[in-house]
Amino acid sequence: MTVNVAGASVRKDWDTYFMDIAYMASTRSQCPRRHVGAVLVQGKKLLGTAYNGAPMGVDDCSEAGCMLVEEYEMRVVDGQQELVKKERCVRTIHAEQNLLLFTDRSDREGSTVYVTDQPCWTCANLLANSGVTEVVYDRPYLKDSEKVKEMMRQRGIIFRRMEGFAPPPGTSLQS
Ligand SMILES: [Zn+2]
Ligand SMILES: [Zn+2]
């Protein structure tokens, strides 16, 4: 936090303010592998918050364990392409998808989504068709990253990463 000479905190800028809230939302997630939070902002008004989780009334990862799938991902390691095996939990509805399920189309038109993690391909596709015109994320997610960025560019959606952002203490699972 920045502190001015008098010792009082300086007001947070809007990006930081809303990304902080996205991280707060992410702490509600019950998946031990990934905590993702997302918020919908229209004209500096907060219109929705969401996190990744199982459908309502259905056992979540803390009760039933993660639902893991294995997949292979191409990675470049020291200039060499390598096939890396990864495990992914598919029990949860992603934060971005929950955000779209619980907000109205009219609230999304021309709005900004702040999300703790760079959206995956499926979420990016949904966001691109949701009325949202800007997506701001913090932690990069490399899988399909270039495809996602190119699709957002074609769609005319501002897609940017936070610069120099530090999540509020205790809200980041992966750091
Ligand atoms: Zn899980
Ligand atoms: Zn996703």
Automatic annotation (TrEMBL):
Cofactor(s) the protein requires to work: Zn(2+)
Q: Can you give the residue ranges of the CMP/dCMP-type deaminase domain? A: 13-159
What's the short name of a Pfam family annotated to this entry? dCMP_cyt_deam_1
Q: Which UniProt keywords apply?
A: Hydrolase, Metal-binding, Zinc
Instruction: Kindly give the InterPro entries that the UniProt entry links to this protein.
Output: APOBEC/CMP_deaminase_Zn-bd, CMP_dCMP_dom, Cytidine_deaminase-like, dCMP_deaminase, dCMP_deaminase-rel, Deoxycytidylate_deaminase_dom
Concerning PANTHER family, the annotation shows: DEOXYCYTIDYLATE DEAMINASE, DEOXYCYTIDYLATE DEAMINASE-RELATED
Q: Which family does it belong to?
A: Belongs to the cytidine and deoxycytidylate deaminase family.
Q: What is this protein called?
A: Deoxycytidylate deaminase
Print the organism lineage: Bacteria, Bacillati, Bacillota, Bacilli, Bacillales
